[in-house]
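Study the following:
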Amino acid sequence: MNYESFKYSSEDGVGHLVLNKGEDLNKMTMNFWYELPRILDEIDRDASLRVLILSSTGKHFCAGMDLKNFGTLGSDSEKKTNVPDKARIGENLYRVAKELQDMLSKLEKLRIPVLAGIQGGCIGGGLDLVTAADMRFASKDAFFCIQEVNIGMAADIGTLQRLPRVIPEGKVRELAYTGRRMPAEEALDAGLVNKVYESHEEMVSGLKEMAAVIASKSPLAVYGTKAILNFSRDHTIAEGLEYNALWSGAMLPQEDMAEAMMSNMEKRDPEFQDMQEIKDYGKSSAK
């Protein structure tokens, strides 16, 4: 499938998803939101993938929502006949927000780890996007901004829920209340990013090196680790331990464990089977 807002490629178990509208600051247009869930479904169905790199082109990683593409949602600036009442407009805005939230949650729910590389501005919806990744990396010119308060609203598609799980809550509140920019080094100190690179090119090269290491591991073990970490983040320790035990009881990859130990003894690279393909039953034609 061909995409306009993204460029996608894969090699040796590593997928690379690139925001491809650098000349337009990689704004989240209507087309962006149309293509994102479709390409993430395509990635999730590819059983050969072990890890995904998310990066972008141009000066800035993502300038956030392209509001002009969405019109004046809920605005009554133009008086028309049969204008919906405020409650109906509000219900519609609620559904739009839920739909956008669900699209970003698809990134978080992928079976494979997602490594995000950020250069320049990561603003508003761009920050919502990268907080759904497993790890974030930055070039030294990167900065992060919870932009929504600067345009008179509260962030509503993921940042306020995910960012406090990554950096201290007081820091989140400061950024959310002031709308100021957090530069790369401060993001590193706060734990938002794992590493800061000198340039965009060095960052992408570093991401590819890390992705290759992850891709060499048992895909089922990596998926299990991601699933358990995500569940444990959102539940109590006792619930997380229970989920961990159930996962191990149901999906302990004994063949992969044997291959890992054998390859280590034989001083060779391990060879692990791909995970099972996800069947797209919803689109199967009725017989």
About this structure: Residues 127 and 159 are 7 Å apart (CA to CA). The chain has two domains: 6-215, 219-281. Confidence is low (pLDDT under 50) at residues 72-79.
